[in-house]
C-alpha cells in the first residue's frame, strides 16, 4: 500500500523490464481481450508508479486483474477503494482523473474533529460517528479549506455507503451534514475558490441526500432536496451541478408516475450538459429521457433516445466525466434499457437486458446488483417464466441481507403478488413467496 506521495514500487515491479510505453500497450491489449476501453499511455503508467494515482478506476482495475490473476489491487500497490470512492473531488475548471484524493484531507479532517468545529460535525455525521451536538457546533465566521474538505468527504462517504448498503437507514443520518453544509454557505468565506467548493459540495450533498430519500420511497423529500440542489446550481452558475440536479429530477419524476415531467427534466439536463464535453453524461441523460418516453408509451421516441444513449456511450469515458457518474458503466446502461423495455411491455427483451446488467455489474455496487436482480425477477414473471422468476427473486432476497432499499423491496413485493396470483402452487414459486414473507417479517 502506498502513502499519498510514495512511489508505487509494487506496480513498478509488475512492469518488469518493459518500458512504460510497452507496458501501456500491453494494458490496452489486455483491455481489448475483455471488452474494456482504456486510453492507457506511458504518462498514465508514470502517474501510477509515482503514486499520483492511488487506486485505478473500475475499468483499469478489471484490466489489471485480468493481466495479473490472483492479485488484488492492494497487491499491486493501490490503496483500498474505501479510502477514495470513485475519483478525486471535482473543482471548477479542473477535470477529474482516476481514483486520486486530496493528500492532506485526512489530516485536515482529524484536526477539524479535535476542535469540535462544523467541519468535524459534517465529517462525523457522514461517517456515522459521534458528532458534537447541534448546540455545541461552532459555525465559523468564515469557512475555509477544512470545512470545504469535510463537505466533499461527506458526499463521497454517503455515496460509498449507498453503493454497498442501499438507502434505508442512511437518509435520516445524512440530513445532518447537509444542514451543516448549508450553514457553512451562509457563514461565507474569504476566498472565491473555497466558496466555489462549498457551493458545489453542498449541492452534490443535497443530491446525495435526495437520492437516499428517493430510493427509500420518500418522494416528497427527494423532490425538495433536488430542487434545493438545482437552486444552488443556478445561484453558483454551475452547469455540471445543474445537469446532475435535472438528471435526478427526471429519474424521480419517472418513478413517481410523472413521465412527461421526466422527459422535460431530462431534456433540460442535456441542455445544461452540452458544454461539459462528457459523452457518458449525455448518454445517461438520454437514458433518463428514454425512461420518460417509455412511461408515456411512446415507443418511437423511446427507441430514438435509447439509440442515442448507446451511440454516446460508445464514445467512451473521458476526463470531463463527473465524479458522481462512477456507477455508470455498461451494467447501468443495460439495466436502464431493461427498465424502458419493461415499461413498454417488452418483458422478454427487458429480461435479457436485466440479466446482462446483473452479469456486468461490479461487485462494489451491491445495491445495483440487488436492484437489477429484482428487475430481472419481475420481467421474467411478466414474461411467463415463473420458475426463472422465482430463482431470480430468491437471489435478490439473498442480496437484501446486505442491502436495505425500500425500492427493491417494493419491486419484489410486486413480483410476489404476480407470481402468487398466477403460479402460487408451483414449488419454486412457493419457496420464493415463503422466503419473501420471512424477509419482510425480519425487516
TrEMBL record:
Question: Which SUPFAM superfamilies does the record match to this protein?
Answer: TPR-like
Q: What is this protein called?
A: Transcriptional regulator
Q: Which InterPro entries match?
A: TAT_signal (IPR006311), TPR-like_helical_dom_sf (IPR011990)
Amino acid at each position: 500500500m502506498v502513502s499519498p506521495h510514495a512511489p508505487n514500487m509494487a506496480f513498478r515491479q509488475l512492469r518488469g523490464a518493459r518500458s512504460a510505453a510497452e507496458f501501456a500497450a500491453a494494458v490496452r491489449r489486455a483491455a481489448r481481450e475483455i471488452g474494456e476501453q482504456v486510453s492507457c499511455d506511458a504518462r498514465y503508467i508514470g502517474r501510477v508508479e509515482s503514486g499520483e494515482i492511488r487506486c485505478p478506476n473500475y475499468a483499469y482495475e478489471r484490466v489489471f486483474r485480468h493481466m495479473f490473476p490472483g492479485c488484488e489491487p492492494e497487491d499491486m500497490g493501490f490503496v483500498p477503494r474505501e479510502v477514495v470512492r470513485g475519483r478525486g473531488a471535482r473543482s471548477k475548471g479542473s477535470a477529474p482523473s482516476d481514483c486520486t484524493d486530496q493528500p492532506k484531507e485526512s489530516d485536515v479532517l482529524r484536526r477539524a474533529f479535535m476542535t469540535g468545529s462544523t467541519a468535524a460535525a459534517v465529517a462525523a455525521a457522514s461517517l456515522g460517528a459521534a458528532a458534537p451536538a447541534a448546540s455545541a457546533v461552532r459555525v465559523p465566521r468564515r469557512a475555509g479549506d477544512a470545512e470545504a474538505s469535510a463537505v466533499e468527504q461527506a458526499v463521497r462517504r454517503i455515496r460509498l455507503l449507498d453503493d454497498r448498503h442501499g438507502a434505508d437507514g442512511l437518509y435520516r443520518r445524512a440530513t445532518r451534514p447537509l444542514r451543516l453544509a448549508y450553514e457553512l454557505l451562509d457563514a461565507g468565506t474569504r476566498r472565491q475558490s473555497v466558496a466555489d467548493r462549498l457551493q458545489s459540495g453542498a449541492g452534490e450533498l443535497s443530491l446525495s441526500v435526495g437520492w437516499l430519500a428517493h430510493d427509500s420511497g420518500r418522494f416528497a423529500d427527494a423532490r425538495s432536496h433536488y430542487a434545493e440542489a438545482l437552486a444552488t446550481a443556478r445561484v453558483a452558475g454551475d452547469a455540471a451541478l445543474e445537469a446532475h440536479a435535472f438528471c435526478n429530477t427526471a429519474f424521480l419524476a419517472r418513478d413517481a408516475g410523472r413521465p412527461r415531467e421526466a422527459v422535460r427534466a431530462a431534456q433540460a439536463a442535456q441542455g445544461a450538459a452540452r458544454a461539459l464535453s462528457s459523452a457518458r453524461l449525455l448518454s445517461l441523460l438520454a437514458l433518463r429521457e428514454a425512461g420518460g418516453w417509455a412511461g408515456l408509451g411512446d415507443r418511437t421516441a423511446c427507441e430514438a433516445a435509447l439509440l442515442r444513449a448507446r451511440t454516446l456511450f460508445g464514445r467512451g469515458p473521458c476526463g470531463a466525466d463527473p465524479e458522481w457518474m462512477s456507477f455508470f458503466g455498461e451494467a447501468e446502461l443495460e439495466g436502464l434499457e431493461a427498465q424502458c423495455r419493461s415499461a413498454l411491455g417488452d418483458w422478454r427483451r427487458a429480461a435479457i437486458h436485466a440479466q446482462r446488467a446483473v452479469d456486468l455489474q461490479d461487485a462494489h455496487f451491491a445495491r445495483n446488483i440487488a436492484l437489477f436482480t429484482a428487475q430481472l425477477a419481475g420481467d421474467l414473471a411478466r414474461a411467463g417464466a415463473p420458475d426463472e422468476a422465482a430463482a431470480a427473486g430468491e437471489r435478490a432476497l439473498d442480496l437484501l441481507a446486505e442491502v436495505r432499499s425500500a425500492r427493491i423491496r417494493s419491486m419484489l413485493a410486486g413480483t410476489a403478488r404476480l407470481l402468487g396470483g398466477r403460479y402460487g402452487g408451483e414449488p419454486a414459486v412457493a419457496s420464493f413467496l415463503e422466503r419473501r414473507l420471512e424477509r419482510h417479517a425480519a425487516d
